[in-house]
Amino acid sequence: MSLEGYYKDMRNLISYKEGANFISTDEDWQSKVTTGKGNSYGAEVLIQKKTGRTTGWLGYTLSKSNRQFEEINMGKGVSL
Question: Which of 32, 36, 46, 50 is the most buried (most CB within 10 A)?
Fold first, then answer.
């Protein structure tokens, strides 16, 4: 049996701005994106049986990612 966890801090994430028009060729792509920050964390459990008549493993992962951009959703964070 094993239990693992992780945490990652993210900076300079890129996303399209709200209302960005993808068809228009008047603007370059850099004027249609914004930068933000975020983090992600999670845990994973693995149970493994290697001996005996029945063998196998069972794993489960639980994770969460948060991202925040000043120009998207009025600066409120978004959880994924």
Answer: 36
Cα–Cα distance, 50 to 56 (Å, whole number): 7
Counting beta carbons within 10 angstroms of the beta carbon of residue 69, is it exposed (0 to 12), middle (13 to 18) or buried (19 or more)?
buried
Q: What distance separates the 2 farthest-apart alpha carbons in the chain?
A: 67
Q: What's the pTM?
A: 0.68
